[in-house]
Design a protein that fits this description.
This protein has helices spanning about 1-20, 25-35, 35-50, 50-55, 105-175, 180-215, 240-250, 250-270, 320-385, 390-425, 430-435, and strands spanning about 60-75, 85-105, 225, 275-290, 300-310, 440. With about 450 residues, it is of the alpha+beta class. The protein folds into two domains: about 20-60 and about 110-275 and about 325-440, Outer membrane efflux proteins (OEP), CATH 1.20.1600; about 60-70 and about 85-105 and about 275-310, Outer membrane efflux proteins (OEP) (Single Sheet). The strands form two sheets. The chain has a four-stranded antiparallel sheet with strand order 1-2-4-5, with no helix packed on it. It has a two-stranded antiparallel sheet with strand order 3-6. α2 (about 25-35) crosses α5, α4 packs antiparallel against α5 and α5 (about 105-175) packs antiparallel against α6.
Amino acid sequence: MRRLVHVFLGACLLQAAAASAADLLEIYRAALASDPVYSAARASWTAAQEKLPQGRAGLLPQASLSASTQHNDRDLSFRSPTQPGTNSQFNSNSASISITQPIYRQQNLAAYEQGKTQVALADVQLAVAGQDLILRTAQAYFDVLLARDSVAFAESQKAAIGQQLEQAKRNFEVGNATITDTHEAQARFDLVTAQEIAARNDLEVRNRALEQLIGRAAPRLALLGKRFTLQAPDPVSMESWVEQARDASLQVRAARESLKLSSQEIRRNRGAHHPTLDAYATVTESSSGAGTQGAVGTDTSSKVIGLQLAIPLYQGGAISSRVREAIANEDKARQDLENATRAAELAARQGYLGVTSGIAQVRALEAALVSNQSSLDSTRLGQEVGVRTQVDVLNAQQQLFSARRDLAQARYNYILSLLRLKAAAGQLGEADLERVNSWLDK
């Protein structure tokens, strides 16, 4: 009996766990681990970290070891008929180690600085991908909630219209109403049935989009609860947000790093006109067998140390062409920075207006919802006393459900605008998701 009780309790706990709703943070962390777009950005960041040691390598000593062995078969003949020719076979062996230390190479110095810039650029690009993942996760999450709300509203409206249709049929049968009321109710019922089908199809699509993000079946999601509060942007000035976006937007920072990288590319290509100076040292050990009659083998040890200066004179115009190409790319990067700055300013303005207008819209729709509910109650009462028609009730019901749907969408849009505003200013992080998550009923 005790064992059966334990099994029963375990089954109940598993069922409760399965029935628990996933909140926004859980979905985000699942996306963080499974989203292929962010995973690709993270792999690209890992690859970019190697640019720094690659650039540093051009400033460090280069060492190489070489060895060779060969068999020689030599035939020696003389032009004098009295002296016979000879044949000798011997081995030659050689081994050497060489070390080169660059002393002055302008191109290598520029490549090292480029490596540092590429690592910094990769850091910003990964942060951009992180912000994009937060926004995509929130968008997918609230798209599913809105689609679920639309299905629920369509079902409720269908049930309410179905009651009106049954009432219209009964009234027509007893002679208290005309067939027009029945036809009107039937038309509304058929229309809301079609809307319900469309809403269910949209919910299926939104669930599939969420599954693509998290890499598994879409779970049941926590709904927006009573803890949801409307909060004005802080700071309250739009220009303050625009200034922050101009300075701290991740897209602007990435464009700045790209411009810096382009300028360094010009210096790197111009460095090919500069002389190069290297220090080098070589140690060689070689041996050779006897190669001629009467000769003996030799062993040679050689040690060399020196400086090597190389001055480029002319390479067919390739270096000058690469410099011109780099200058044009720098100008492109400068224009990209200007475009990123303007886009960040626009995104900040749009996000700010989305938040402020969203607050006003939510409050207006909350008041409209109360008014529409009162209007429906009054219309139903008027129908009972004969001063309102069936059509009036159907219209009032439709307005009420439309207000509910619009209010839900306005709340979700407000939350997304709040996150987009933070992203435009380069401030969006997991803490902002935790704040939104606190508004959900878990």
